[in-house]
């Protein structure tokens, strides 16, 4: 298979489609780029905190404030190192015709200039939790699979360590091929959870994302990947729905996922030592209150507010909404892509409190 061959729509987008989604067949590792980056992202703690019924209020609304629209950026109760991103993810980006990029991941990597800052690596990590990435395979991946052979994935070496190479886009993969000149390779798309489980289960020190893309690259160590997977929804249902094109069913898809057990977290903090623990909210320009919830602790950590992520059970959420009529609804993943869910959207959750 040519590296960027365009397949018919009836063909699978993944050369490993005949294998389970969580399996990548390893083999010998023939690619050894000399310029793999050495920076690592620290694994951030996710503590458990008892919650009081108080909350951090958002900013007040001016008297002449205009009505809020769905795409109006959320206003956080307290300053954030990262401002809210766009409500929706970029749509249909293909830097190479026929290969759909992981646009959110590519954008997060593009923010890196020089030595990556911890906040930038956390942002890359949170945007990795959706969609797919591309891997390089030595030889023709389709032919190797048809012959029942292992797939020799490309890796970088750092001393005695091996790191799996993965790419956010066709352009990043092309840059890698141009950098080492090895054109006897093929592209293989893989769900991100399959990639992370493969790295965690193998003899690897982590994953290198877009290693030949100048500063726009990152290393995520295995310890961080383990933490990411352990706290993630195995199906990444909420983040996936937020990352896809918005439709009239997006809100119901997210609520259904929550009702089916997709994990959520809230942000808590103490205003002073020994004081009550408050739960973070945001407010619209007209003063509507939305409880902030997060599909993964990384979504909160990336904001850089110093809040702590605490798991939120669906029954707890139902009681919180039912017990405070002043709450308009939920703001999901404020760092973006985000969505506001009102009480009508959350009718199924509210029913649990009856």
Keywords for this entry:
354 residues; alpha+beta; Trna Endonuclease, Chain: A, domain 1; 2 domains; 8-stranded mixed beta sheet; 4-stranded mixed beta sheet; 11 helices; disordered N terminus
Q: Order of helices and strands, N to C?
A: EEHHEHEEHEHEEHHHEEEHEHEEH
- DSSP helix count? 11
- Tally the beta strands: 14
| CA(first)-CA(last) distance | 57 Å
List unreliable stretches of 5+ residues. Answer: 1-68
Main β-sheet: number of strands, strand sense, barrel status?
Answer: 8 strands, mixed
Gyration radius over CA: 22 Å
Helix content: 25-40%
Quote the average pLDDT: 80
What percentage of amino acids are in beta strands?
15-25%
Rough shape?
elongated
Strand pairing plus helix content: what structural class?
alpha+beta
Overall domain count: 2
Describe this structure in words.
This protein has 2 domains: 55-86 and 246-353, no CATH class; 103-230, Uncharacterised protein PF11572, DUF3234 (Trna Endonuclease, Chain: A, domain 1, 3-Layer(aba) Sandwich), CATH 3.40.1350.90. The protein is of the alpha+beta class. It has helices at 103-110, 118-127, 141-146, 170-180, 192-201, 222-230, 237-243, 250-259, 297-301, 314-322, 347-350, and strands spanning 55-56, 75-76, 132-138, 155-158, 161-166, 185-191, 206-209, 218-221, 264-270, 277-283, 289-294, 308-312, 327-332, 339-342. β10 and β11 form a beta hairpin. The longest helix is centred in the middle third of the chain and has 11 residues, at 170-180.
